[in-house]
């Protein structure tokens, strides 16, 4: 079987053949074809992570996820492999980072303080809290609050993953599946989804407009922080802040909701 086999046959036929034969040559061909996807996901996960998280390490972690995706992919479910693989690749990176426990205790503490402040303010006011209100609840200035948000950017993404993926592989819900662009939003579609997807969607709808837009552009439209900054005419660091705050708000909401529904 030639190395260029994926170019010679339809990929759908090859997946069906691989599912039957478990051909090592086909597996290697799929790995070569989708390695750029691993690097792409690593680049997105690396955004906002501390400097001690190496891109090459993320790529290495992601390779395990790619291999797992190739071995477990079922073409009969009518889901594109790329869509399926992104979740596995990203999940593998997150899992390995969590095992390494690379986040300093002080940063975890700050993330909890922000989450507690969000809960206190929003339960008292009955609406999304502003930056100034969260900062005031924490007893710091708004400028100091923005600096804290930047410090916890990596942990906010990681901790939110605990809510998106509460159990084993069968529970994994890609965030992109729960975010719809405003132009295609359809309440009827959400009603038909399982309860957890509905809860995530409703929680995203309640976010402040700019934070919601960042999530839509990052996860649904697949833009980088730099590209989102160009769209919204703000700096890349500002987009990172908005992304972190959106994640922290969602983690707070979903953790509380999950305690009541799951």
Structure description:
The N and C termini lie far apart (49 Å). The longest helix has 26 residues, at 236-261. With 262 residues, the chain is mainly alpha-helical. The protein has 14 helices and no strands. Helices cover 73% and strands 0% of the residues. Helix 6 packs across helix 14. The protein is elongated, with a radius of gyration of 20 Å.
Annotation, overall tally of beta strands: 0
First-to-last CA distance? 49 Å
What general outline do the C-alpha atoms trace?
Answer: elongated
SS-based structural class?
mainly alpha
Our count of helices gives 14
Rg is 20 Å
Q: What are its keywords?
A:
elongated, 262 residues, single chain, mainly alpha
Blueprint of the fold:
Layout: H1 5-8, H2 11-21, H3 24-46, H4 55-72, H5 81-100, H6 105-125, H7 131-138, H8 142-151, H9 153-164, H10 187-192, H11 195-205, H12 209-220, H13 225-232, H14 236-261
Summarize the structure.
The protein has 262 residues and is mostly helical. The protein has helices at residues 5-8, 11-21, 24-46, 55-72, 81-100, 105-125, 131-138, 142-151, 153-164, 187-192, 195-205, 209-220, 225-232, 236-261.
């Amino acid at each position: 079987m030639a190395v260029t086999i994926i170019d010679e046959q339809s990929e759908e036929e090859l997946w069906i053949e691989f599912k039957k034969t478990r051909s090592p040559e086909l597996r290697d061909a799929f790995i070569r074809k989708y390695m750029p996807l691993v690097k792409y996901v690593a680049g997105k996960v690396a955004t906002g992570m501390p400097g001690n998280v190496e891109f090459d390490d993320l790529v290495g972690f992601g390779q395990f996820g790619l291999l797992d995706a190739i071995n477990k992919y079922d073409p009969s479910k009518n889901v594109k492999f790329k869509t399926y693989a992104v979740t596995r690749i990203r999940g593998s990176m997150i899992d390995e980072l969590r095992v390494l426990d690379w986040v300093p205790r002080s940063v975890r503490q700050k993330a909890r303080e922000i989450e507690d402040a969000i809960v206190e303010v929003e339960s008292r006011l009955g609406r999304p809290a502003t930056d100034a209100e969260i900062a005031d609840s924490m007893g710091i200035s708004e400028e100091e609050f923005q600096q804290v948000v930047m410090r916890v950017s990596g942990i906010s993404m990681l901790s939110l993953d605990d809510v998106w993926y509460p159990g084993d592989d069968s529970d994994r819900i890609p965030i992109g599946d729960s975010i719809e662009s405003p132009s295609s939003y359809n309440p009827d579609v959400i009603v038909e989804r399982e309860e957890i997807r509905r809860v995530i969607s409703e929680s995203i709808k309640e976010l402040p407009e700019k934070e919601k837009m960042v999530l839509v552009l990052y996860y649904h439209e697949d833009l980088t922080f730099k590209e989102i900054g160009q769209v919204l005419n703000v700096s890349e660091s500002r987009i990172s802040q908005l992304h972190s705050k959106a994640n922290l708000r969602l983690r707070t909401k979903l953790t509380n909701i999950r305690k009541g529904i799951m």
